[in-house]
Amino acid sequence: MDIHITRLEERYGQNYLLLQSMSLVRGFYLGTLMPFYMLMIRLVVHHKVVSLVYIFNGLLMHMA
């Protein structure tokens, strides 16, 4: 495993470190923000489907 990692570092260098940090950030996001985000989505979908669609359509009309 160590040999594989060193080979990756030789080949990619900074990119590999960047990937490592990205996966760390993604893990943090999935661990903390994602459940909260999903909960919010579930609440909105449960209570305000029609109003959400209305707002989305309004945004589309505004942008177009």
UniProtKB/TrEMBL annotation:
<keyword id="KW-1133">Transmembrane helix</keyword>
<protein>
    <submittedName>
        <fullName>Uncharacterized protein</fullName>
    </submittedName>
</protein>
<feature type="transmembrane region" description="Helical">
    <location>
        <begin position="27"/>
        <end position="45"/>
    </location>
</feature>
<keyword id="KW-0472">Membrane</keyword>
<keyword id="KW-0812">Transmembrane</keyword>
